[in-house]
Known about the structure:
Layout lengths: L4 H23 L4 H9 L12 H20 L7 H4 L50
Amino acid sequence: MTKPAAEVMHDVIVSAVIDGLGALRAASKGLPNAMLRDIAAIHPNTTFQDLPAELQASIQTSVRAAFTRLQSEGYTVLNPKVAGTARPPQTPPREPRGPARGHVRGGRPPRQPRPEGGGRPEGAPPRGKPPKG
């Protein structure tokens, strides 16, 4: 029986993080200050080329291992060059919603126009609590 894709990806990501930390340790050559400096240099705008060579190699190995693991679990992994040629079916664009469509089943009825003065229609009860008397 195959595992759910989320569980497989969870295992793959945990393994990749552990491998990445090991690669950072190897890149620092066992010096804690160098490792701390390498970790502090990583931020959201860091590119792949900015990472230490050992970490780059670890990431590439983890990606290959992830695809191999997904395929061994029975999931289909497409080549992006081949997958780009087949387009998923497109749904037709939805009609814009608005007052022109009128009352839609299950929706609210269209608004009634206000009287010329912009106030309440004639004979409408006043809003709020009735005066005490």
